[in-house]
Fold:
Amino acid sequence: MTPEKTLRLGEFVSLMALMTSLVALSIDAMLPALGDIGRELGTTAPNQSQLVVSALFLGLALGQFIYGPISDSTGRKRPIFAGLALYLVGTLLCVLSKDFETMLAGRFLQGLGVAGPRIVTIALVRDQYEGPAMARIMSLIMAVFIIVPAVAPALGQVILEFTHWRAIFGLLLGLSLIALTWFALRQPETLPNTRRIPWSVRRLASGLIEAVRTRTAFGYALAAGTIFGGFIGYLISAPQIFQQQYGVPHLFPLFFALLSLAIGAAALLNARLVLRFGMYLLTRTALQVQCAVSIAVVLAAWWAPGGLPLWAFMGWGSVAFFCQGLLIGNFNAIAMEPLGHIAGVGAAMVGVVTSFLSLTLGTTIGQAYDGTVIPLIGGFAVLGLLSLTMIWWTRRTED
Structure:
């Protein structure tokens, strides 16, 4: 199925990337300001400022459960409008926050709101593409989207040089208004009335049960949530690693951008490789490489006198995050492939499982930060092995 009117590929990918990039921008532009936010709003523990990131992820995880099923009954556009409106409210609350609790409440509302465009865009893409074609589109969206994490910390740091950290939220406010206007004016509805599912608790429960019982969808959602937990652990501990451990606060945006570009390069390359080698081979190979490199580097970090040097950490990160870029689009496409007839509910199940699992594991890794990179790299190694085990279990059961 395709809508009566479709956007050209370039505009469609750019619009989807802008809406989904609000998540990354809401996280990465904040990273240089976490210390300032914590000090001004009265945090009491060194790792407590990480909760500014975790609170957004919590709202994101909960919101995905709401918007996906609703989009199956109302169409794709209305839930995105509602989510962007809620995101605007949360952003305003952050701008006006006077204590850390209010900041966390605003961040939670931001996550709850941005879950709308985050999860419904996956269903919107699934309405028009499937299989390797969907994996290609998701990889192209990710390649555009990844530019945001590459430049967002630098953007946040430049803002901090000239004004207050609250101006970063002002930037988020403006970009969300641009996304809302562009989407409203240009994107057609992709779910016609004839394919909409009337809303009811029974239908929702039935769809969720079907999605969970679809072993490919559920198995790969678990695998994705597990392996992405390591990446969230990196996101919330990166400011401490670069600014405190390695003592390069002014170069933090540069190093963060380099690792982000590794993900973007892999996602762009995956758009071509997936049509030749297939999603399953690429995901298995990427996981195996990431596990092997992480195990070797964490052992080196354990025994290295004085800890792992910065150049070695960047070398490990380049390989590990390149592998992440190969996994993101493929995991989503594999999980969603058998759920086209319930794409909204299916996207909700995949998103909720992936988000809650990765948030739990990532926060655990972040809170384990002890002034070294061992908890982070060791987390990547362990979670990679667990993800491989889940994929093996899923494929074995299917066979």
Observations:
- The chain has one domain: 9-188+200-398.
- Residues 150 and 257 are 4 Å apart (CA to CA).
- The chain has a mean pLDDT of 86.
